Structure formats: C-alpha cells, structure tokens
Amino acid sequence: xxxxxxxxxxxxxxxxxxxxxxxxxxxxxxxxxxxxxxxxxxxxxxxxxxxxxxxxxxxxxxxxxxxxxxxxxxxxxxxxxxxxxxxxxxxxxxxxxxxxxxxxxxxxxxxxxxxxxxxxxxxxxxxxxxxxxxxxxxxxxxxxxxxxxxxxxxxxxxxxxxxxxxxxxxxxxxxxxxxxxxxxxxxxxxxxxxxxxxxxxxxxxxxxxxxxxxxxx
Length: 217
Known about the structure:
By secondary structure, the protein is an alpha/beta fold. The strands form two sheets. It has a four-stranded parallel sheet with strand order 2-1-3-4, with helices on both faces. The protein is built from nine helices and eight strands. The chain folds into two domains: 2-93 and 204-216, 3-Layer(aba) Sandwich (Rossmann fold), CATH 3.40.50; 95-201, Rossmann fold (3-Layer(aba) Sandwich), CATH 3.40.50.
C-alpha cells in the first residue's frame, strides 16, 4: 500500500516516519514536500491555493497512491472538496486526531506553540464533536518557547519542557492533544508518565489510514 503524505515544511516529515514505523510499518510512505504551500500562504486559504492543493492530491492519486494524507494543517478544509475528485481515501492532519480526541473527552487539553494552532485545533475539535453528537470542553495550553527549546536543548530538553505542560494539564482534562506534528517525537516519553491519554496527529493519521485501507482491500 502506497500512502502519499503531503508536507509544506520539512520538519513534519520525521514525525510522519516515526508514526508510520510504529503503527503502519507495512505501508510504503512517499513524502511529497512543497514548501511553497506555506510560503505562498497569507492570511487565508485562497481559491488559488485550494486548487493547488487539489492538484497535488489528484497528482498523487494518478501516480500510484492508494491514499493521501495531509501534514499541513492550514489546508485541512481542502479535503472536503478534494476527496470527491479522487477515488482513494484522503485525510487531513486534523481529521483523525480530532475524532479520537472528541471520543476521549469531554475535557480536551490542546498544546500549541502559537495561538493560530490553538484556534484551528479548537475549531476542528468542535466540528468532530458535532459529528459524534458529543460535547467537548477545550483547555488550551500555549507554550511558545517549545521550538526554541528544541533548537537549543535538543530532543531531551524538548521532551522535558513538553512534559511540564502535560503535567500541568493532566489534572484538568481527560485527554491531551499534541497540537503540532513536530510534537509527535515526544509521544512515547510523555505516555511513560502521563495520567491521561496523549494523542498526536501523525499517529492518529497513520492509524486511520491503516483502518481505511484495510477496509478497502
């Protein structure tokens, strides 16, 4: 099974590899990187950018992909229209993980490094909750220094710092959602001591795509 993962930044490729190695190792994952998808993105998802991502999805479907996953969260709305253009499964970066988070709630802690991530995550979480006919309560956690810690202290420092935020959130929530793909590298460390479940978008996407492809085979 060949899965094409579409990226707008190179940093999202290692977390995807990690997640698929753990959850869906038999899949052949092809990482398609188009940095222009982010460089050309301004304040909104324009019709031109929607067409561009749709073309990437169609290109992948026409060149051997059995499924397409998006690793760029700002393009999540394109999935609703693009999935009708191809005859293979297409999932957004938010879809699978938000469905899991809504089911595991109702109190969902979301960790992000920027307010835009928290805002978008809350929107898609509420959308998933409506689809499941459940109620959710979002507990946002803004940690803007995480990327700086990762660059200065490496993976060990990053895991420690992220663990501090999880520890603060845990008493207030039923599940913690790691709001950005780059945080997936710390999942195993966090699961080792967290008192509540921890969800990462790459792992949820790998799990969902495995389920979808198993059903279609």
